[in-house]
Amino acid sequence: MPHVPLLETEQAPLQVKTVYEEFHRRMSFPSPPNFIMTQGHSLAVARGTWEVVRNVLLCGEIPRWTKEMMFVAISKDRTCRYCAAAHFACCRMLGVEPDTLDRLVDDITTLNDAKLRDMILFAVKCSRNPQSLTDGDYDTLRRHGLQQSEIVEIVGMSALAVYANIIADATAMDPDEMFNSI
């Protein structure tokens, strides 16, 4: 049972409805997800979350599907069922191959693409304990040709995933039925 009920679109103030609309349209979802409707009780939080999602997840140099895979791996590692399921659905929606998704969930180290594998492993390590990152971890990414801007995006994705996991877990939001059909 959720600790914070959804603020449904019909009951939301106009500014919150605007955030809901932007979120579901830009994320290519059929409707606003529970994640943003739980936050709708605070315009500041909902708007702030949307801005971070828009700028870190949807924009940048690293493709969204790669960032979604990082989100799944971090959420699985942190046992956030809501975020793992939602972003797994996003990976499917964005065309990530089923075999790749199986490897992501079962054992990241078995991913065939070494660059992708090392990016995701870096993101998970960053989300667990950012102070444990070493020069060697950064050098691994640089050997794959990643630029500083891309490395900073991975750090940002790690932070975004942890932030989202905390919101989802602290509010105990229910999973979205819409993701079952994606």
What would your notes on this structure say?
This protein has 182 residues and is mostly helical. The chain folds into 2 domains: 9-59, no CATH class; 64-171, AhpD-like. It contains 9 helices and no strands. It has helices at residues 14-26, 34-39, 43-58, 64-77, 81-93, 98-106, 114-128, 135-143, 148-171.
Notable traits:
single chain; 182 residues; 2 domains; globular
Characterize the largest beta sheet: strand count, sense, and whether it forms a barrel: none
Using the coordinates above, name the CATH class of the largest domain.
Answer: Mainly Alpha
What is the CATH T-level topology of the largest domain?
AhpD-like
Radius of gyration: 16 Å
Number of helices: 9
Helix content: 55-70%
Terminal Cα span: 24 Å
In CATH, the architecture of the largest domain is Up-down Bundle
Shape: globular
Domain count, please report it.
2
Q: Summarize the helix and strand pattern as letters.
A: HHHHHHHHH
In percent terms, what proportion of residues is strand? under 5%
Q: What's the CATH H-level homologous superfamily of the largest domain?
A: AhpD-like
Number of strands: 0
Mean pLDDT: 97
Q: Uncertain regions: pLDDT < 50 for 5+ in a row?
A: none
The helix-and-strand class reads: mainly alpha
